[in-house]
Amino acid sequence: DAKTTQPNSMESNEEEPVHLPCNHSTISGTDYIHWYRQLPSQGPEYVIHGLTSNVNNRMASLAIAEDRKSSTLILHRATLRDAAVYYCIPTQLETSGSRLTFGEGTQLTVNP
Amino acid sequence: NAGVMQNPRHLVRRRGQEARLRCSPMKGHSHVYWYRQLPEEGLKFMVYLQKENIIDESGMPKERFSAEFPKEGPSILRIQQVVRGDSAAYFCASSPRYSSYEQYFGPGTRLTVT
Hints:
Chain A is mostly beta strands. Chain A contains 1 helix and 9 strands.
């Protein structure tokens, strides 16, 4: 599995955009980039995934660098409910199946 | 549409007792994953099962831990002769197929060993 580097913590204000970066310089060509988050005292929750192109869904946007060595999760308007640990997880689905290798993640604090 | 269910949500065991953690996957999901989160640590993969088969147990401790996913009923993670170091949150996740983009996690079982 590719090694990832994420900031330990980030802070944002409510209703402002948040850009959560992730470096994954050892990613292979067939690794998908997944993002999950874990709210306090809950199980992880899928956020978004992508391979090469930028992706949007109702929760967030994922911007993937052209060389795929980094990506950025974008929350367009942070809410208090978005306070969580965010994990960036490259995964080679064909060989690893859906098994996820969690790193340290980024603790996001959202200020009212 | 019920999500992944885990029970009990909290479990207290004395050292040496057995702990049984149950996981009912989402309807239609036949792939189950167990993860453990030790206090102040990240989530670690333990085992991946399909119905009646263990596919990948590379993250399971060699002794005292076992898992099953029978044809009928929930998946069970069993810890024999628990020790204080087993105190952790145990999460189960399910997916509809082997290489699914999305895993659905349960709320976890918090095991405390006294």
